[in-house]
Amino acid sequence: SEATKLEPWDLAAVATAAGRGALGIVRLSGPRAIEIADQLAGPLPAPRSAVLRHFRDETGAAIDQGLALVFKAPHSFTGEDVVELQGHGAPVVLAALVSAAIAHGARAARPGEFSERAYLNGRIDLAQAEAIADLIDAASTQAARAAQRSLDGVFSARVQALTESLIALRVYVEGALDFSDEDIDWLGQGSLQA
């Protein structure tokens, strides 16, 4: 449907927390993500395998060295082709990697856009998408556990079970109303079980 069609642009963004650290990840997602990453890191590995590569900018100058991982659609977080470039966590290095990806045709992802794509591609439902933000913002162990359970689909499964119960109840009520003049013992049939 029109509502679920995605912009065809390839996304690039830093996928690790802001600030400096030992490791940093730049994620690419979209129909040309593998092609763009190939220009940054050279030949990529088979899906779900890691390979050590030098990451280069659009002029061929070295930016960093690290691991490249490929996740082929539809078996990725976003449901699209995804590549992760895992290098050193210096903000200047990660910004240079994103800039190089943009120079090769990607665009900078908006905050939450990878999760949005996962939702629009049917990889997660709305409750799971919201659970990602809850997990990132969790301020306690209990909050993190609750968010993780939601992300695992526990909340969605409960909502689905309630939905199915309500549909069954609606069918029962509509049947009782439609055939109220019939000699049917609706309550004695055991049809209405909570």
Describe this structure in words.
The protein has 194 residues and is α+β, with helices and mostly antiparallel strands. It has six helices and six strands. The protein has helices at residues 33-41, 91-103, 113-120, 126-137, 141-151, 154-178, and strands at 11-14, 21-29, 50-56, 62-71, 82-89, 107-108. Strands 3-4-5-2-1-6 form a six-stranded mixed β-sheet, with helices on one face. A hairpin with a 6-residue loop joins β1 (11-14) and β2 (21-29). α3 (113-120) packs antiparallel against α4 (126-137) and α4 (126-137) packs antiparallel against α5. It is elongated, with a radius of gyration of 24 Å. The two termini are 36 Å apart.
How far apart are the termini?
36 Å
3D shape? elongated
Strand order of the largest sheet: 3-4-5-2-1-6
Return residue spans where pLDDT drops below 50 for at least 5 consecutive residues. Answer: none
Largest sheet: 6 strands, mixed
- The amount of helix comes to 40-55%
Quick structural overview:
With 194 residues, the protein is α+β, with helices and mostly antiparallel strands.
Indicate the topology.
Blueprint (H helix, E strand, L loop, with lengths): L10 E4 L6 E9 L3 H9 L8 E7 L5 E10 L10 E8 L1 H13 L3 E2 L4 H8 L5 H12 L3 H11 L2 H25 L16
Parallel strand pairs: 1-6
Antiparallel strand pairs: 1-2, 2-5, 3-4, 4-5
Helix pairs in contact: 3-4, 4-5
Provide the descriptors you would attach to this structure in a database record.
single chain; 194 residues; alpha+beta; six-stranded mixed β-sheet; 6 strands
